[in-house]
Amino acid sequence: MRIRYFAWLKQRTGCAEEELDLPAEIQTVADLMAYLGERHPRFAEAAQGQGVVRCAVDQTHAEAAARLEGAREVAFFPPVTGG
Amino acid sequence: MRIRYFAWLKQRTGCAEEELDLPAEIQTVADLMAYLGERHPRFAEAAQGQGVVRCAVDQTHAEAAARLEGAREVAFFPPVTGG
Amino acid sequence: MVRVQAEPFDPGQELAHFAAGRTDIGAVASFTGFVRDTHQGERILAMTLEHYPGMTERELERIEAEARSRWSLDDCLVIHRYGRMLPGEPIVLVATASAHRAAALDSCAFLMDWLKTKAPFWKLEETPSGEHWVDARESDDIAAERWRARGPDRVK
Amino acid sequence: MVRVQAEPFDPGQELAHFAAGRTDIGAVASFTGFVRDTHQGERILAMTLEHYPGMTERELERIEAEARSRWSLDDCLVIHRYGRMLPGEPIVLVATASAHRAAALDSCAFLMDWLKTKAPFWKLEETPSGEHWVDARESDDIAAERWRARGPDRVK
Questions:
Q1: Which residues of C touch B78 (CB under 8 A)?
Q2: Can you give the CATH number for the domain in which A71 is found?
Q3: ipTM
Q4: I need a labelling partner for D128 at 20 to 30 A (CA). Which of A24, B31, C43, D5 fits?
């Protein structure tokens, strides 16, 4: 699965994207965030803040409970600030 | 005093404006409307409709109870439809 | 600024000049009203806007001053035509500039709502069956009324 | 129509072409957002918009579709830039066209509110003291939320 990071989350993980083979027990966005937090301690730190890390599964906004089955690309980013 | 009429009220009075020397007892917009209704029966007809004839005293919107003292120009018109 | 004129104007060009060259403005909102080719199912050949010269300018200036007192605006433009126009021609342009978007959008809607119920313009439509004065819409009074209920709400 | 581009655009020129030549449109509303030269008291030298290519277009198209389902729109345009821009440069343009003014004004405000909370853009400010990612504003969430409460309200 391809994982992407945007804005200042890239600085927390040190990369814009990574390809990962996820263990079978990673089934939801929340599972994935916990898993990524072990790889990137400063990502875990950000993920603890309420609403600070947002997620999109295959380019669609997704909540923490959303399931990852069949997903090819999951992105994490701070709240958007365009416009 | 100069009296002006706009939009279809001109068709009711047959004139766009007229100069009138008003009797002293004409003190409010309502008095003036009644007085003008005697000169122009089709104006009186329109003036009977609720909110159909609007008024401005010296180019400022005015209610029926507004006093005419010192006024130089009074205008009557239907509800506005610009924009 | 308020302009009342018989001459056509180009909304795109007016907006290109509006607040041009400034770097302190974050938001510009605009509204343009056009002559439509139909009204209540009837074809419109042309539209003539009658107005009350003198009062029109005063009333639009009052409405602009009211908008500036309610919102923090960096600039404000109202252009309204009178005379005869054809379908597709612009009748009115309102533009507002502010540091923030809510002030620009809300004040633009406010200016149109108040203009619609206070500025002394009257529309005469030319249709295949003759000329008609356009009736005022009750919904315009309701739209204007909502700002009265809210009172001044200066957005920072 | 939705356009996501690095190239600058000219809002006046875009609006001059928007809905041009049509005679069935009564109302065009627009909003333009610009880079400001100050933010929270600090001088802004430049602004870089990062975005999520692919998702940005999809999200903006969803937002446009939502606006078209809520209001009867004759046309709709969203242009959003990404990359580095200087104070005074336009970032975003939203324009809506409808037979009537409430539909044009409301849908324009709606598009901006939803864009502000859903379109994947992030602002990086360059200031004399260094680079800062701009924090999301809670007021943007509140502004977007008001449309959820109202639900679809198709204005005739």
A1: 122, 133, 136
A2: 3.10.20.30
A3: 0.93
A4: D5
The closest of C103, C119, C116 to C143, measured between CA atoms, is C116
pLDDT string in tens for chain C (156-residue length): 999 999 999 999 999 999 888 999 999 999 999 999 999 899 999 999 999 999 999 999 999 999 999 999 999 999 999 999 999 999 999 999 999 999 999 999 999 999 999 999 999 999 999 999 999 988 898 899 888 877 555 443
Nearest-neighbour CA in chain B from C104: distance (Å): 19
Q: How many domains does chain A have?
A: 1
Chain D interface includes A49 (CB < 8 A)? no
- For A6, which DSSP code? -
Cα–Cα distance between D96 and D119 in angstroms, integer?
A: 18
CATH code of domain C2-148: 3.90.1170.40
Q: What is the CA radius of gyration of chain A?
A: 12
Task: Please give the C-alpha separations between residue D41 and each of C55, C75, D66, D126, in angstroms, as whole numbers.
Answer: 42, 21, 36, 13
CB of B14 within 8 Å of a chain C CB? The answer is: no
Structure tokens at D127: 């200031």
